[in-house]
Design brief:
The protein is mostly helical. Helix 9 runs parallel beside helix 11 and helix 22 packs antiparallel against helix 23 (407-418). Among the domains are: 2-56, no CATH class; 88-160; 634-841, Tetratricopeptide repeat domain (Serine Threonine Protein Phosphatase 5, Tetratricopeptide repeat, Alpha Horseshoe).
Length: 846
């Protein structure tokens, strides 16, 4: 209890009554959590271990971080609901869904709605399930229905499709064009259901839906319903649909075509037995190539490769196998991971005098690309070209789909694309976008955007493709193109997804346009069609932008807007806000924010980042004692494990307050807890010991730590050592450090040489400063591997000014094109290969 009160007093300096209130709130929340847990599981588990002192930070619910030993993550509400539905506990899932705070918006969350609908559709007692689900009448979105009916159709679950259609009416769920088309395909043989769909759909009918209904009308010879469809479509779609009707009618008038259609329909519905029955019935009057190809397709569709091979052999024996037959069986082999047999069929196809098609190669090509065997893939492309099968958009899309190994591979595919006779379609363009973004070839993407006229009416891109391009151009800081893409997407009325909006917001924030990002999000929240796209991740991205520029006022304004809009912050959101407090000098706000974390629904659990951020904030604010107290309490409890980031923040605090003894204790603590120091840790130690006039100890620490942990001391550590030497009036030692850097193969950068030259000037050894400046510019004794980074402008100006009239000549000498035409060092070097230690690294007794 004393530990709890000490921590609360440390963070917020609350009164006794405030501490009682906090403890009472902790007790109430713990009791409520226990009741909920027992209600959900039906049994009581052993009491948890006593809460840690760190849990009693104001607002901290005390959940273990991901780095804690055997930490247990409580399932989210959505996970609990999903588990209940998956296990057939529909009533429980409905009850839990009613408790979701997101339901206050009047809509069942999109990540739960499809699961609820499918669980009800597949329930043993459909009527009872429907009665229970009626509490959500009018609360299901059209997109949720579309997602679940498309999935049911894909799985050939026609019964579920029928139940879902019934649910859509009972639950007043609007049907999107995609859902209507899926229902039409599912009810292709039920003209009553199709007529009801046509009557329900608003004019003009979407072309995919109308096409599906017309195809069913032709098969079922329902002229009246077909006429109704044509009355409800647009004039532009009517012409295309008439061609479809004429083609399907011609096929339907041919008995063989009709039987082939029936076989394929059985295969698509997973009824291989029915497909075989139709085939055998028709075989009495004679079998054609079309019949064989239909039954082969049905076998492959139903995953029965053995039966497909049997029919294929019959077709070959009757001399009725054509290239389509070969392609279909090859598809079956590839689906069964029997690539060798598929390759053998491709070779056999050509020996039989048949002409291979694109489909003959594409299956094998896709298999090679998926296996990342690009050598074999390119060889296959060459075989295509040799067989006079020119690569088309599908070929190129397959090649781009693979994780291309290099920009050279991308250039080869672009060469294929440029040689195509057909125009580029949206699918291929999307593949190009993905490949260019992945390989960082934005110049290639820009060129393709110009050459294919992606802004033309013929090129219809989807929201994910726009998002990928927006993100990519944002990364290269081309905001003009980012806004152009966003405007193009809006003008084409392409509905963005939450990911697309996230890409746009991320691009704006990354390019210091955070206020514009906030304005855009506010506009989207004010529109009914897009307000659901603005989520916690998007708000958190904007918060990071304001936190980066230390605008605490806007951080808090945005946080308040999230609360008003009902957008629940998560742990990352709160950590972002805490980081803004740490950098913006607003640590007095921490206790209230931690209280908000605990009161959130569901509660946002603090993690090691939360506490590392608080520690960093106290160190930045010059309150190292509070930061050290948090570390001590964490280690006493053992629930939270401090990491290197936290230790480095504390070492930085020691450096700010010049407390070397505390730093040494922290270093020992790191070793005891198994936290490995980094070069950043060494930099902090070099700065601290230099400021505290413990130069020899700085060298000893760096030498010992680098040897013990196998660290290769980098250029930043050496630069800090050089600064420490000058601070302790050891100019010769600073120059010796530079010489040793060169011997170890390190490449000093502009900062290192600027520190050296400035230090030499302050030590009044001007000749050495001039010499080092010449080395920095490559005029004298190039430092290492031709690396000549030069000096900062300020340092060069100071050097030339100190030389009086001679400074002008030196400036000309240093800034000639020869001196400027060198590259900057990368700070990477090699470890000392052996031999005697340099003077500054010799032990004290040497």
């Amino acid at each position: 209890m004393m530990m709890m009160m000490d921590m609360i007093d440390m963070i917020s300096n609350t009164s006794t009554m405030e501490m009682v209130r906090v403890m009472w709130m902790e007790l109430a929340i713990a009791s409520f959590a226990a009741v909920v847990y027992c209600t959900l599981t039906g049994y009581v588990t052993p009491l948890p271990k006593k809460r840690s002192k760190m849990c009693e930070l104001p607002g901290s619910p005390g959940k273990a971080s991901k780095n804690s030993v055997q930490s247990i993550q409580e399932p989210t509400a959505c996970q609990v609901i999903s588990t209940a539905l998956r296990q057939g506990r529909l009533s429980e899932g409905i009850a839990l869904t009613q408790e979701l705070p997101e339901l206050s918006s009047g809509v069942v969350p999109a990540n739960i709605a499809p699961r609820l609908l499918m669980a009800a559709a597949k329930a043993p007692d459909f009527e009872a399930a429907t009665a229970e689900l009626k509490v959500f009448i009018g609360k299901f979105e059209a997109r949720s229905l579309e997602a679940v009916v498309v999935e049911a159709l894909k799985n050939k679950d026609m019964k579920a499709c029928c139940q879902l259609q019934a649910l859509s009416s009972l639950m007043s769920i609007p049907k999107s064009n995609g859902a209507l088309a899926a229902f039409a395909k599912a009810h292709a043989s039920d003209m009553v259901a199709l007529r009801a769909l046509v009557e329900e759909a608003e004019a003009p009918l979407a072309k995919p839906f109308a096409k599906a209904v017309l195809e069913a009308c032709i098969a079922m010879k329902d002229v009246d319903l077909a006429a109704e469809v044509f009355e409800k479509v647009t004039d532009s779609d009517a012409a295309t649909l008439r061609n479809v009707v004429e083609k399907e009618s011609a096929n339907a008038s041919n008995p063989t075509c009709a039987q082939a259609r029936e076989i394929r329909a059985c295969g698509k519905n997973g009824d291989l037995k029915g497909a075989v029955a139709v085939f055998e019935r028709q075989s009495v009057d004679g079998v054609t190539t079309l019949m064989y190809n239909s039954i082969l397709e049905a076998c492959v569709e139903c995953g029965n490769l053995g039966k497909a091979v049997d029919f294929f052999n019959l077709a070959k024996g009757s001399d009725l196998a054509d290239v389509v037959s070969y392609n279909t069986v090859m598809k079956g082999y590839l689906a069964s991971d029997q690539e060798t047999q598929a390759t053998a069929l491709l070779a056999e196809l050509t020996t039989m005098g048949l002409v291979a098609t694109h489909a003959s190669y594409h299956g094998l090509l896709n298999a090679r690309v998926v296996a990342r065997d690009f050598g074999a893939a390119w060889k296959l492309v060459q075989e295509m070209q040799a067989a006079r099968v020119s690569p088309n958009s599908v070929t190129c899309a397959i090649m781009l789909k693979g994780k291309l190994a290099s920009p050279r591979d991308l250039s080869k595919v672009i060469g294929l694309i440029n040689a195509m006779d057909q125009p580029m379609d949206a699918v291929l363009f999307a593949a190009i976008v993905e490949a260019c973004v992945r390989t960082g070839q934005m110049d290639v993407l820009s060129a393709q955007m110009k050459s294919c006229s992606f802004e033309s009416a013929d090129m219809t891109l989807n929201a994910p493709t726009y998002g990928a391009m927006i993100k990519a151009f944002g990364q290269i800081h081309n905001m003009q193109q980012v806004w152009k893409l966003w405007g193009n997407m809006e003008s084409r009325k392409v509905q963005p997804t939450a990911i697309t909006v996230g890409c746009m917001v991320e691009a704006l924030v990354a390019n210091q346009c955070t206020t514009d990002a906030w304005t855009l999000v506010q506009q989207m929240r004010n529109q009914e069609a897009t307000k659901s796209l603005v989520n916690t991740v998007i708000y958190t991205t904007i918060l990071k932008g304001f936190a980066r520029v230390k605008d605490t006022a806007k951080v808090m304004a945005l946080y308040e807007e999230m609360q008003v809009c009902g957008c629940s912050p998560n742990t990352i959101t709160y950590n972002t806000i805490l980081n803004a407090f740490a950098h913006g000098g607003a640590m007095h706000r921490v206790p209230a924010l931690l209280e908000d974390m605990k009161a959130a629904t569901p509660p946002a659990e603090p993690d090691i980042v939360t506490y590392s951020t608080i520690v960093k904030g106290f160190c930045n604010a010059g309150n190292l004692d509070r930061a050290l107290q948090i570390l001590e309490d964490m280690q006493t409890e053992g629930k939270y494990v401090p990491d290197e980031v936290m230790y480095n923040s504390l070492l930085d605090g020691c450096t700010r307050e010049q407390r070397p003894d505390d730093a040494l204790k922290l270093l020992a603590n790191m070793k005891k807890t198994g936290v490995t120091p980094s070069n950043y840790t060494l930099s902090m130690l070099a700065k601290l010991m230099g400021r505290c006039r413990r130069l020899n100890q700085a060298f000893t620490l760096i030498e010992d730590i680098s040897r013990e942990y196998g660290l290769k001391v980098n250029i930043q550590v050496y630069t800090c050592l050089i600064q420490a030497c000058f601070m302790n009036r050891q100019a010769n030692k600073a120059v010796a450090v530079h010489d040793q850097m060169i011997q170890e193969g390190l490449r000093p950068d502009e900062m290192t040489y600027s520190v050296l030259v400035k230090g030499c000037l302050q030590a009044r050894i001007v000749d050495k400063a001039v010499h080092l400046a010449k080395v920095a510019y490559g005029v004298s004794n190039a430092s290492s591997s031709g690396s000549c980074p030069g000096l900062s402008d300020k340092c060069l100006e100071e050097l030339c000014s100190s030389l009086g009239p001679a400074g002008k000549a030196l400036r000309v000498e240093l800034t000639t094109p020869v001196a400027r035409g060198v590259t900057k060092g990368d700070g990477k070097g090699r470890s000392n290969s052996g031999g005697a230690l340099p003077p500054w690294r010799q032990p004290a007794s040497a």
